[in-house]
Write a structure and sequence with these properties.
The protein is of the alpha+beta class. The protein is 55% helix and 13% strand. Helix 3 packs across helix 5 and helix 4 crosses helix 5.
Amino acid sequence: MSELAEKIRNKLTVDESIIIEHVLDRLSKLIGITKTGKVIFKISRDALTTKNQIALYAIGKYMAKQAGYIESDQISIEELSRELGISPKIASTRAGELRREGKLISLERGMYRVNPILIESIISEIEGRSSR
């Protein structure tokens, strides 16, 4: 391996497992997940924006996949609409905004997953809102 490659690896490689371990305690105050992969909100959703609800739900799905409860952490507009009780149009609009902010990754039309690198910043934003 070249010296440059080693420097790049040392400076830029992000270990997702470290990020996850760092935020689990904080996240456990916000959501839970069932063994079937269902995301349960532990805080009042009334204190959150729709975008925050979608982002937190996406984090829950990601964690459910990491825990081995579900095969995929992909979320659809239809699932967001059903699980969060919002219209498909609102779900699509807010998911699109989250994608533009980099918080969600678009997999295909109408299918998203959380950007694991931004989980901690999403949690920080939600903690700030829920403590008001």
